[in-house]
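Researcher: Next entry: HTH luxR-type domain-containing protein (Arthrobacter alpinus).
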Amino acid sequence: MDLVCRALDNGDGRGVILAGEYGVGKTFVARQVIEKLALENLVVSLRCSSSTEAIEYGAISPLMSHLEQEALGSPLAVLQGITRNLNERAAGRGVLIFVDNIQYLDKSSALILTQLAVNGVVRLLAACNSLTEVPREIVGLWRDGIIRRIDVLPFSLPEARQWFELILGARVSEAAARALWSAGGGIPRFLDVIVHEQIEAGTLVKTDNVWVVTGSAFVCGGNGVDTVMTALGTVSESERLIAEILALSGGMPLNQIMSAVDVAALDSLQQRGYLDISQGEFANVRLSNWLMAKVLRKQVPAGRSRELRRRVLEAVDASDRSVHLSFSEAIWSLDCGVPLDLDQTLLAARDATQSGHPRDALRLLEALPGHRSLPRILPELVSARIALGEFGAARNLILNPDLQIDQLPDRHWVDVMLLRAALARLQDQSQEIAGEILERINTRLNCRDGDSASQQANSADSELLDMREDLTLGVIEQAIHDGRYRAVVRELRELHQSGRSSETRLLAGSWLTQALTLTGSAVDAARVSREIDLENLGGNINFPSSEKTGSALVAAVIASLSAERIGRHNLWVPAGMFMGTRIACFAELSEGLVAVYSGRADNALEYLVPAASQLKELGQRGTWSLAIAAIAYACALKGDNDMALEYLNQGKEGAGHCARLVSTACSYFQVLTSAELASKEKAIVRLFALADEERQFRTTAVEMVFVHAAVRLGSVTGAQRLLTLASGLQGPLASLCESFGRGIVSRDVNLLVVVAEVAAAQGDALFSRDIARSALKIAGENVDRVGMRLAQQLIRGGVLKLGQVKVSDEDGQRLTGREQEVAVHAASGASNKDIAAKMHISVRTVEGHLYQIYSKLQVASRAELRETLV
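Model: Predicted structure:
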């Protein structure tokens, strides 16, 4: 709006034309501009339509009611009459004419409006879908620089999230914002319809005063259909045909769609923002607007759908067709009555689940004749239920005694048993159950090994090698779940280097990053992370870099959460489905963990509060507990003790059955919160107990995290242990901790000051503040005034960087408000007399304040005071 107003207020500017697709908000922007300029201008609004386009002067007829009949035959007389009338009505003010849908402007009206703008009688504000459809007279104004073109674009994700929060009056989770935004292609008209239809359907709900999605598929109601059909009224027949094909197919390779449709129409749709085209060697194209795709799939009659499918198949060479159908193509075939064989269905169902559409996977599988008696489809059925978050249904399927699972071929039996082990981890089952399942798989494969060896075919048995690798991954996943990272490092290195599939190598690399991070090899972990590009594993959901967290524990948690994306390269979650919602929520949680660890409490809460509400709605108890513990710590850092205690008590309800890594991170933030709220001594005891537990698991880096936290809280006796641990570990934090421990042991204030400065330079203002607190305490005990002054200076710098964090007695004596004012004046060079005059106090009072200031800040002159305050 401001850009439009500036263009209209420009002395040489004669107008603005707003260009953008239906629903993007052109009219809304224009109305805001009109409201702002209405006091200083006569505003005339004209609305064009297909009916006015066919009438001479149809668009500007409201401006011609005062003209005599004989004047209508002369364009010059019409122009002069309208000019006189507008000037009289304006009474010295400017004239602003707004023309909506200017693409429907009739030729005579276009001529008059053009001359009014050229003559400077009016400023023109117009809105259109595309400049190519606008009368050439108006386009000429733009080409000659008389009016300016401003494109109104769809919302970006951050803009959409702000807009959602404005219209809904509460925070919106990242997962909900992303799902809604992608469903409507960022176009406000579509977004508004989608939001209200999801609230009505119960797929968008408010939990703890945060709007979240439930993980169920979005619905499309009557308003959605009407909005889409109105938008489609602006596209050509060729463009609509392309939209229908892409809606029915769910997307196609670019080369295939180009061979089946008018390429010019395809280019037009892309320019208008209706298409998403992926980059890379095998570009894929699909509709960018989920709502439009949903409506078109419902609106296209069955006969036309079959005709379009034949058209696509005839246009595409057999050699260009995929080896197997994508899930969307399989759904289209199903809708057209084209039967699919079992192998095609299984591959398509797996594609659907991995792409975030498990409902479509179930539809494909359940369409198979006699599917209830087909044990081969069981793994895909269970995977789809797990992807929907329906763990109970998945468990019922996999434990159904009528399926005679032991009669399955080895490949399918192994898949089923591995899913059983995964469910045992996901639900409240003992570790022995998952272990027993994995041992059963090993026993059966050993028997097959013997059979293969007797047939001298072991080396050639590719299926057996695949099953062995899958079993190894299952065993490793169980070990990671239990916290036994060091025990699987060797196997992970082997799989990362020589796994049989790219997905296996990626997954092993991600787990290896976690294991190396937690066992103290941060440099090696960073190298592996870069090799697999852990922050960009696919899809459009990005996680923070684990290298920048500073904490091995937080870095490992982020690596664990981001690994959820592996195997989901085509993940697209416009419909709020469980899988994509969960991953988007994990990304938001990760950002919050990075922020709270480094002490940026306000920034952390912006991520953590919506993430916690979303995780609660999805039933993710373990990660919800972690978010709650981190929120409690953020509140405690801010000094909001009541809220911190409330969240701490919520978190103590327990994380349920979750991975040990998540449980450990929960404990870390809970103990730090209790240290801020109550007894630091008790917190230190608990931190050492947790460190001892990590020593048993040989996760040395996490042991250092807990010892490091205890020393930061004031444990002098733990400094030597920190020094010893850190000296054997890799990474910047280990180096800092080693120097920190050495400084405490040797009571070296200068070393601690240097370490605090390094921590601040690395972006860890909270650690810098805590090191400076230790330096201040030692300097005070040694009556080291210079050391005290330097330490206090670092503490103040850290507090300024952290924002709203509470200040304690450990930060040194604090100046009162009056003392701060006197200190600023004195540091600037003002004399006592000048300060007294400025503050309307006596010189003796100024002297008294300066005495307190010098004492508290450990300075002896104005020069030292100036240096300290700077």
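Model: Note for the record: Confidence is low (pLDDT under 50) at residues 453-460, 568-575.
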